Amino acid sequence: MREKRSDYFENIRKAALIQREYAMRNPRGHKWYGENYWGFTASDGPGPRTARIDGVNHRFLGYAARSMPYGPDDGTISPAAAFGTIPFAPDIVLPAIRQISQRHPSIAGNYRVPNALNPTMTIDDALGWVSDGYFGRIRA
């Protein structure tokens, strides 16, 4: 990393900025992607399945290594991917935590965050798909 004039801290910060920029561009038009709704990593997904939503056919993946800008993108974000970068990019992570938590109020309780969210996948729930898996623990 020294050859690239970088270090672990800067590498993570740049990755967070790239993910946020990708979500702001939202090249596939996924629901809610934006400045404060991002986070991509290997995670659960609502698939495998295909669904027609708002007149558009979508292919949803199951567990997949989602990375941006070159990885597969089916509208799934991993909140932990964004939240976990808070020490490296608090200026962009804190607003993301606020927005993701506001859009998905159920994730703020019990000290746990779902592995993944997909608001584009609205077949089963108007707010979209939420992973059954979680990071963290339930408060005793």
Please provide a written account of the structure.
Helix content is 26%, strand content 17%. It has 140 residues and is α+β, with helices and mostly antiparallel strands. It has one domain (2-136). Strands 1-4 form a two-stranded antiparallel ribbon. A two-stranded antiparallel ribbon has the order 2-3. The protein has a two-stranded antiparallel ribbon with strand order 5-8. The radius of gyration is 15 Å and the shape is globular.
Strands of the largest sheet, in order across it?
1-4
Helix content: 25-40%
Run of helices and strands: HEEEEHHEEEE
Strand count, sense and barrel status of the largest sheet are: 2 strands, antiparallel
What share of the residues does DSSP label as strand, in percent?
A: 15-25%
Number of domains: 1
Overall radius of gyration = 15 Å
What's the shape?
Answer: globular
